[in-house]
Write a structure and sequence with these properties.
The protein is of the alpha+beta class.
């Protein structure tokens, strides 16, 4: 691609793409390409001016080199990314706005006065009729205020005011519609988590194909913990499927041949083959848009409060208008009250604030399924952490090898790795990986290796019996003894780790200490969460008490519970809620799912089980607990913005009413300032709450 640099700095570059014009698809393709250049943190491409602004960390010339390699024909952005773009939407509303302003200017300049008055009277019928419909239905809503303002102005033959009010109302409607649609589209685009690959069954073989290649009546195979990618009917197999994301059912549902399955549901047990019935309307994008637009239960309490308050204020506005007229007998002053409506700003600003916060969270790798969950995070007093994979990394590592014979630690680790590599599980993998990192070669030196399930390994080296495994297997089943004189060393084995015991010829040779390392950021994150308003931090784990105690001490939780079952976690969450506390649950495994569902807000770590991510209300994409701090900061800031919006709306509109009543400003000026302030508050509500950089 050919371009020239218009401006540059250490972290920002603006370029002019050397082409005559740029289509929406080309602009979106370029955005997708630039976003995936190493070091790029932000990019914006303007299709009308063929320019691009890029913010980055690192070497600027790497960015420039990557841009030079770009070619529209050789690079293709995902179809879903292009489809989810709001670029065409923006262009449509920009054109509408320009056209509306131009038509009004031409009408006021060139249309004869009698015709203009007739046109205004004709247009006013729409507003008056809408107001009367409200009245006949027994409802006092915003439409009644608008109809009264326009109707009274026409009756007074104040056509200039009536025309201005209708124009401002039309502009306001357009801007509100544009703001809401753009925010929703941007959010849905960011949240889109479309499945890219599926297993297609063809001629009794499984073929991995692109999601977009699947057609109706194709047969698709889904394995354990997999997500069902389409709606369909089961043709083979049997499974227990969690449908919480679609139907809200808390328990998994049995599916067999002939059963219907839904896109987005998760297989907990078994596997199935199903015939695809629908390929359209089932993507994550479409479900999320539907959720945002239709699911009232996901609205935050603040949003609901704003909408209820907006409707409640209309009668007071009408009463205020009537009272001013009775006291002053001045229609102009009464109209000044009628022109100012608190409800417009409330109905626009609050939902947009929440949607914008969800979008901002998504841009920072945090997927939020509804506004009420951000409010729950802001109000939360208790946070419950799972241990494995949440506070720890879920990647066991060897921390030490304690020798109980003449061989050194490396030689003993080499022998252990030689045995463990045959039956890989998490602890065995840790042993093999530790040997690899030390460069210890462990060629085959043993006879046949026997694996005793849930116990350990038995083999022989140079005709000497070697076993490695749990304490129960080594000491109780095999009767191994600790060499004389080394009893104190055995008694002082570190308690903050799990142990593998290796014995040769009936005597203990080594104890390999393995731990699930605590996340480096865990203690600091918990400390920051307390500063941000969390009062009680709890850790719950199915692990043993010794390990749980050690991890709890390292990360600094207030309380910990060990050897708990999934239902114990859920029960604890319910008990905390019964005490009037808002509860956050953070987990990553299938065993965390009941507690994630029970909490006011369930947060799943993205690398965890698919089921946990589907059930959770919020998912953290990054493998870092600092994202929890971001989430809490964002949620707190959202509530501050909502409260600030309340104050601004009441202050500005209250001031306009006062100025109108005392005759300082005309009704048209009240309407203009009211609409401009509503727009300003709405636009401000779309801006980012935080600068996490």
């Amino acid at each position: 691609m050919k371009f020239k640099i218009l401006s540059e700095s250490d972290s920002r570059i603006r370029i002019q793409i050397l082409q005559k014009s740029m289509s929406f698809e080309q602009a979106d393709t370029l955005v997708y390409y630039i976003r995936h250049i190493r070091g790029v943190t932000f990019t914006r491409v303007a299709d009308r001016t063929c320019t691009a602004t890029i913010k980055f960390n690192g070497d600027k010339w790497n960015i420039v080199a990557a841009l030079q390699k770009f070619n529209y024909e050789r690079f293709e952005a995902p179809e879903e990314f292009i489809k989810n773009s709001s670029r065409a939407l923006n262009a449509k509303y920009q054109d509408k706005l320009v056209r509306m302003i131009a038509v009004r200017f031409l009408r006021r300049t060139f249309m004869p006065s009698p015709l203009r008055m007739g046109f205004i009277m004709f247009k006013s019928f729409k507003y008056v009729r809408a107001g009367l419909k409200c009245l006949f239905r027994g409802k006092i809503e915003v439409a009644l205020l608008d109809g009264a303002a326009v109707g009274v102005s026409v009756l007074r033959r104040d056509f200039r005011t009536a025309g201005s009010v209708m124009f401002l109302l039309k502009i306001g409607e357009l801007l509100e519609e544009w703001t809401e649609k753009k925010t929703t589209a941007d959010l849905a685009g960011v949240l889109s988590l479309n499945i890219s690959k599926v297993w297609l069954k063809k001629d009794n073989t499984e073929v991995l194909v692109n999601y977009s290649e699947v057609k109706e009546d194709d047969e698709v195979l889904v394995h354990l913990s997999g997500v069902v990618p389409f709606d369909g009917v089961v043709t083979e197999g049997e499974a227990m499927i969690n449908q919480a994301s679609m139907t809200g059912e808390s328990e998994a549902v049995r599916k067999e041949v002939g059963s219907t399955v839904f896109a987005g549901t998760v297989i907990e047990e078994g596997e199935i083959t199903f015939k695809v019935k629908k390929t359209g309307g089932n993507s994550k994008f479409e479900k999320i848009v539907k959720m945002i637009e239709e699911t009232e239960k996901l609205k935050s309490g603040a949003e609901g409060k704003a909408l209820r308050l907006a409707d409640k204020l209309v009668p007071y506005t009408l009463a205020g208008t009537g009272l001013v007229y009775l006291l002053t007998r001045n229609v102009t002053k009464a109209l000044a009250v009628l022109m100012v409506d608190f409800s417009c700003a409330l109905k626009l600003a609050m939902p947009v604030s929440v949607l914008s916060a969800i979008r901002e969270a998504s841009e920072n790798g945090i997927t939020v399924k509804g506004g009420k969950f951000l409010e729950a995070v802001a109000d939360a007093e208790t946070i419950v952490f799972d241990k494995t994979g949440t506070l720890t990394k879920a990647e066991p590592v060897v921390t030490s090898v304690i020798s109980f014979e003449d061989r050194n630690e490396d030689e003993l680790l080499r022998i252990a790795a030689c045995l463990e590599e045959h039956f890989p599980h998490s602890m065995a993998n840790a042993v093999v990986e530790a040997a690899r990192k030390k460069g210890l070669k462990h060629d085959e030196m043993h006879s046949k290796v026997n694996y005793i399930v849930a116990h350990g390994i038995s083999s022989s080296i140079s005709d000497k019996k070697v076993i490695i495994g749990s304490y129960h297997f080594v000491f109780e089943d095999e009767g191994v003894i600790v060499p004389k004189g080394l009893e104190d060393r055995f008694a002082n084995i570190p308690e903050d780790s799990s142990h593998l015991y290796m014995a040769i010829e009936g005597k203990l040779s080594a104890v390999i200490c393995i731990s699930d390392p605590v996340r480096e950021e865990a203690r600091e994150v918990i400390s920051k969460l307390r500063v941000l308003g969390i009062k009680k931090v709890v850790m719950m784990t199915g692990d043993n008490k010794r390990t749980a105690r050690a991890v709890a001490a390292q990360v600094g939780v207030d309380k910990y519970y060990a050897e708990v079952l999934p239902e114990d976690k859920a029960r604890f969450v319910e008990e905390e809620k019964a005490k009037g506390r808002k509860v956050i649950m953070v987990g990553d495994g299938i065993n965390d799912s009941p507690a994630l569902s029970a909490a006011d807000c369930g947060i799943a770590i993205s690398d965890g089980a698919e089921l946990a991510r589907e059930i959770a209300d919020i998912t953290i994409v990054a493998d870092n607990l600092n994202e929890l701090v971001k989430l809490k900061m964002l949620s707190n800031s959202l509530m501050k913005r909502i409260n600030s919006n309340y104050r601004s709306i009441v202050g500005i509109n209250g001031g306009l009413i006062g100025l109108g009543v005392f005759g300082v400003i005309r009704p048209t000026t009240s309407a203009l300032v009211h609409n401009l302030s509503t727009l300003a508050i709405g636009v401000h509500s779309t801006t980012n709450l935080m600068d996490f950089k």
